[in-house]
Design brief:
The chain is mainly β. The chain folds into five domains: about 1-55, no CATH class; about 65-235, Sandwich (Jelly Rolls); about 245-340, Immunoglobulin-like (Sandwich); about 345-550, Jelly Rolls, CATH 2.60.120; about 550-640, Immunoglobulins (Immunoglobulin-like), CATH 2.60.40. Helices cover about 5% and strands about 45% of the residues. The protein has two helices and 49 strands. The longest helix has 13 residues, at about 45-55. The protein is rod-shaped. The structure holds calcium ion (3 copies). One calcium ion binds next to loops.
Length: about 650
């Protein structure tokens, strides 16, 4: 009894299936396997038939790949001529042709996309076309917009077919289209839907299926169409951002060129979606030691800040990173990038010069002398060009020889204003100072100082940049090195406890249009001469394609000095953007830590000092110097035995 219930007979039947295959419709002879129970009742037949059908109808013809966000990928279906567009399959109706008639099937009428004429026996869902869409953006996508055009091609209002749309993403019923006789391919009904809260992993696919049938009513059916199937991924959105993230990372860039593509920073929520309503400011700062870039602040648009004008003015620099910050949000750090140097070298030219020899284009005027003191011999102030050590110099002296504390003079020599400086990226003012004389009492003394003032407003205001202190018959020669860098923001004073021999000085200026300088000197002997030589303005142009390298600083050779005295440090800086700031460490024994030339005193042991300079582009450089106090030999008294 049990066994008899398990006995089944079977036989083959043959059926014919018409199927579109590789774009051509073919009649296929399909063996139909009928399982028959004891009473010859078909059993499992329909399941087996469905399996066979699926083998023929689900042939994959590629996918519509969507590689970027916020950009529609369109399948027009125009001119398809029976061959499915890439990524689409179809079932249940044959291709008929390009001219409308009443034959049931599919049409490709000019500019009418996929046309469908239901046959007289088309059951519900008998015709379908399915698009398969693949996410190739490289990221999981959470929002999709689907859009298409639906319309009437040939109006026969007795029946009302339409498009019923389904998707593997979930319900898309708002894409359904009910027959509208007044629509046309030139005036279609546009159906659109945006789905959110999805999770479409990179490289995964989803499907959208359009189905139609004969429609309700009676009589003949109209010919309907669909075309311009558009699908896009949307920037994921959320409400409350907690952090920033770089959507477009920085790229390597040439100095002075604009970084491309623009760096983009998004305000995102905990799940990584963009807070599209966020309009807060995002500030992009380069991390140390990056320099030559000014931090930018940009307001978010749709939750994203786009930095389209990133330029670096200094090079070469490597492994730089940006930090993006916004109020209340966790900041983000970019990947690294480099700034490469253009091939060109800066163009350096002499603007004006007076070497008191062959080149004397920078004219000057001698001031009215101020008499100092009353004792000693009455003399006159002496200013003019003389030859010293084989070269012409402009000196200030006195006409008689007086001793210490006796009368003398003070005078100021003012050089003419120089205009037209704004066309240069950088202007250097360089000059030499010297103190000379021969015989008894030669050389400038305490109280007989030399001072340089500069003006960038044609003498309306003056800034003292240098004082060389006279000191006990101090003489020193003109020398081209070492060159000491001066600053508009700090007065450099040399010195108080010794005869300082620094001769060459440089003051760099940018953003000025005019410049002049003056020096004031005092003495009371014919063999006391303060002098200058080689007063010069040099213009440097960092035009397009010219490298503006990072600064370098040199604090000179190590110093030995007597422990009871003091010694003075000085810095020379090259290739920099004014203005400079100075930071000496440690502060032990230094008169100041924020000037170019601090005095060192009171050291009991050797000390290594580090100077870090920071220029106007926030570029830094550092150098070190060892300063060692020397103690006089000790006399040790040993008691005789
Ligand atoms: Ca000279
Ligand atoms: Ca003297
Ligand atoms: Ca004197």
């Amino acid at each position: 009894m049990f066994l008899s219930k398990l006995f089944y007979s079977f036989r083959f039947q043959e059926m014919m299936l018409t199927k579109s295959f590789d774009g051509k419709d073919r009649n296929m002879h399909i063996p139909k396997l009928l399982f028959l129970g004891k009473n010859k009742v078909p059993f499992l037949t329909s399941y087996f038939f469905l399996i066979l059908c699926s083998l023929f109808t689900n042939k994959i013809e590629g996918q519509v790949t969507i590689s970027s966000v916020n950009t529609f990928v369109t399948t027009s279906w125009d001119g398809w001529n029976g061959t499915n567009p890439t990524g689409f399959t179809r079932t249940g109706a044959n291709y008929v042709g390009t001219t409308a008639n009443i034959t049931g099937g599919l049409y490709a009428i000019t500019s009418s996309g996929l046309g469908y004429q239901p046959s007289g026996t088309s059951p519900a869902g008998s015709m379908t076309t399915t698009g398969t869409f693949q996410n190739t953006t490289g990221a999981t996508q959470t929002s999709v917009t689907i859009e298409y055009e639906a319309f009437n091609i040939v109006n026969r209002t007795s029946r009302l077919p339409g498009w019923t749309v389904t998707s593997s993403l979930g319900s898309v019923s708002s894409l359904d289209w009910a027959y509208n006789a007044s629509s046309s391919n030139t005036s279609p009904d546009i159906r659109t839907i945006t789905l959110t809260g999805l999770s479409i992993a990179n490289n995964s696919t989803f499907t959208v299926t359009w189905a139609s049938d004969r429609g309700s009513g009676s009589g003949s059916s109209p010919l309907i169409g669909l075309r311009n199937v558009k699908v896009k991924f949307n920037t994921s959105s959320c409400t409350t951002p907690i952090m920033l993230t770089f959507q477009t990372q920085p790229s390597n860039v040439l100095q002075d060129a604009t970084m491309s593509p623009s760096v983009q920073v998004a305000a995102v929520c905990s799940g990584g979606a963009v807070a599209t309503a966020y309009t807060g400011n995002v500030t992009l700062t380069v991390n140390a030691p990056g320099c030559g870039y000014t931090s930018q602040t940009v307001a978010c648009v749709n939750g994203v800040a786009t930095f389209s004008s990133i330029v670096f003015t200094r090079s070469p620099q490597s492994n730089l990173t940006f930090t993006a910050t916004a109020s209340g949000l966790t900041s983000a750090t970019s990947t690294s990038f480099n700034v490469s140097a253009p091939a060109g070298a800066p163009i350096v030219s002499t603007i004006i010069e007076n070497n008191f020899d062959a080149t004397q284009t920078w004219a000057y005027s001698v001031g009215t002398p101020i008499a100092i003191g009353s004792s000693g011999s009455a003399g006159t102030d002496v200013v003019g060009i003389v030859t010293e050590a084989g070269t012409g110099v402009l000196r200030k002296s006195y006409s008689v020889d007086n001793g210490s504390g006796e009368q003398g003079s003070k005078n100021t020599v003012t050089f003419n204003n120089v205009t037209g400086l704004a066309s240069y990226s950088l202007v250097d003012f360089t000059f030499n100072v010297l103190s000379f004389g021969t015989g008894s009492g030669a050389g400038n003394d305490s109280g007989e100082d030399f001072q340089v003032d500069v003006s960038t407003d044609n003498g309306a205001s003056w800034t003292a940049i240098l004082i060389k202190k006279g000191y006990s018959n101090c003489t020193f020669a003109s020398a081209s090195t070492p060159q000491t860098t001066l600053s508009l923001s700090a007065l450099s004073t040399y010195t108080t406890g010794s005869c300082d021999s620094k001769s060459a000085f440089k003051l760099s200026l940018n953003g000025i249009s005019q410049f002049r300088f003056r020096f004031t000197a005092q003495n009371n002997r014919t063999n006391e001469n303060w002098a200058i030589d080689n007063a010069k303005l040099t213009g440097t142009s960092y035009g397009t394609g010219v490298a503006f390298n990072l600064p370098t600083v040199d604090v000179g050779s190590d110093i030995l000095f007597c422990s009871g005295n003091s010694t003075q440090l000085s810095a020379s800086v090259s290739s920099y953007q004014p203005s400079l700031t100075y930071a000496w460490t440690p502060s032990t024994g230094l008169s100041a830590v924020n000037i170019a030339n601090p005095t060192v005193s009171g050291l009991s042991t050797a000390q290594t000092y580090t100077l870090q300079i920071t220029d106007g582009n926030n570029c830094v450089s550092s150098d070190q110097i060892n300063v060692t106090p020397q103690f006089p030999p000790s006399i040790v008294l040993i008691s005789p035995p």
